[in-house]
Amino acid sequence: MGVKKSDIVLLDDKGLRCDGRKIDQPRRIMIKAGVLKNANGSAYIEFGENKILAGVFGPRDVHPKHLANTDRGILRCRYHMQPFSVSERKNPAPSRREIEISKVIKEALEPAVMLENFPRTVVDIFIEILQADGGSRCAALDAAAVALADAGIPMRDMVSACAAGKVADTIVLDINNEEDQEGQADMPVAYMPNLEKITLIQLDGVLTPQEYEKCVNTAISGCKLVYEIQKKALRDKFFGDESQ
Amino acid sequence: MDDPKRKYVIPGDVITTGPYRAEENVHLFGDKIIATAVGISEIFDSGVRVIPLTGMYIPRIDDFIIGIVRSHTSLSWELAINSCYPGILPAQDVFGRDFDPKVDSLTSRLKKGDLIAARVANSDRSRDPLITIADRDLGKIEDGELVKISPTKIPRLIGKRGSMIQSIEGATKAQITIGQNGYIVVSCPEAEGLLKALDAIRMVEEQAHVPNLTERIQQMLGSNSE
To answer: How far apart are the CA of B7 and the nearest CA of chain A, in angstroms?
Structure first.
């Protein structure tokens, strides 16, 4: 918008990116579990300039009742951006993009949550983007997974998400807003680190088969870094100083 | 934690591999036994389980619970039991087998907001759990203060062979009824004892994962009385 394409150097000759990171370095990540009193589980994440709050309710009664499933529970997810989360006011009504992200987050968490234990119930996840930077769907997923664990909802594994992409013909980890706008490809990946399974993969851009493979592996290595931070957030809340 | 058989786990943590039986809050993936909840894992005999530190109450047959009457139909009451399912208390249970919905009014016995001590008669998740009060020591609770804590902390509040609850009751002269669903009724003739007992229960909830909690509670109750 304000900045012309030629004004940003995505990768300088020292191998540093536009925000000073190396190609395999994620942004600063901070997660805190259990920040809300009224939700059954909650988490707050700062992922670079992203600031995201996630709250989880349930398992609880399904309303409207016709949505209920008699042999398993259902998962509902709302990803919502606050009007002040971006530089120009965002209309708070759900946009096409928000509806899509709500759907992919729901589908990325479904393999992990053991919904078959709770027939006729619903688990509701509410995600509020307070401040958006590139990669908010991954950050939102990370917060939602911690909030689910905080609520005590049985899960086969945590879900950790991180993006990778291609900027200036190089595969880089965790792309930010500028790289997303100006770069060549963006690939968000969600991953279950112990089961070694991918639950979300999207790709915006064009990659060769070699680049594709490298991009997936880079994103997975990012997911593993995020997983450690998610673990720490839960340990800090539940075990305090005594965690190993 | 010193004990090698117990560790702090979060969902996805591999507790152990090998020929163990997967019990509560774990699942078997290949030969790995994986935790599905935040809690403390335990390996005992040939089984592995996780004692959760957070989560909802899942009704199990024969659990002693405390319910709050929420509403009623012409045949049964609906109880809040701190679970994702409401408890169903059939009217025959209270009125006897000659119950007649044309004659007997359910509100004459239990009204909205009443507390009852009850047992889970049947629960299979395909239907709402069936609650009964047809037993000794079950029925309407006439007085006392209701406290809600996380159902996952109930074993800690009871303590080993009831040690924790006995020391709280002994020091405060309060009578404490604990429901497995996390609802607790405390009654005490003296206001001071009641407040002390409530404080102790809240302390157990906050510090459930701390070792030597019984001694800490005893200290707290002792220092308050001086």
So the answer is: 9
**The pLDDT of residue A67:** 95
Q: Where are the domains of chain A?
A: 21-242
What pLDDT does A242 receive? 60
ipTM: 0.86
Give ranges for CATH 3.30.1370.10 in chain B. Answer: 145-225
- CA separation for the pair A30, A50 (Å, rounded): 10
Chain B residues touching residue A121 (CB < 8 angstroms)? 84-85
pLDDT at B224 over 80: no
- What is B145-225's CATH number, 3.30.470.20, 3.30.1370.10, 3.40.50.150, 2.40.160.210? 3.30.1370.10
Cα(A125)–Cα(B11) distance, integer angstroms: 18
CB B33 within 8 A of CB B20: yes
In chain B, what residues touch A153 (CB-CB under 8 Å)?
55
Whether domain A21-242 has CATH 2.40.160.30: the reply is no
Amino acid A4: pLDDT? 54
pLDDT for B2: 61
Q: Do A192 and B12 touch (CB under 8 A)?
A: yes
Give residue-wise pLDDT tens across range B145-169: 999 998 988 988 888 888 889 988 9
Span B92-118, pLDDT tens digits: 888 888 888 888 888 888 999 999 999
CATH for B64-141?
2.40.50.140
Q: Which of A36, A75, A157 to mutate to test the interface with B (most CBs of B within 10 A)?
A: A157
C-alpha–C-alpha distance, residues A204 and A189, integer Å: 12
Contact B209 A235 (CB under 8 A): no
* Neighbouring residues of B80: CB distance < 8 A, sequence distance ≥ 6: B67, B68, B70, B86, B87
What is the per-residue pLDDT for B226? 46
pLDDT above 50 (res B201) = yes
Q: Cβ separation of A235 and B55 shorter than 8 Å?
A: no
Q: Which stretches of chain A drop beneath a pLDDT of 50?
A: 244
Kindly tell me the burial class for residue B16, based on how many C-beta atoms sit within 10 Å of its own C-beta (0-12, 13-18, 19 or more). middle
- Please report, in angstroms and rounded to a whole number, the separation of the first and last CA atoms in chain A: 48
- pLDDT confidence of residue B87: 93
Q: What is B6-52's CATH topology?
A: OB fold (Dihydrolipoamide Acetyltransferase, E2P) (2.40.50)
- As beta bridge partners, residue B90 has B76
Over the range A97-119, which residues count as b (16 or more CB within 10 Å of their CB) and which as e? Answer: ebeebbebbbebbebbbbbeebb
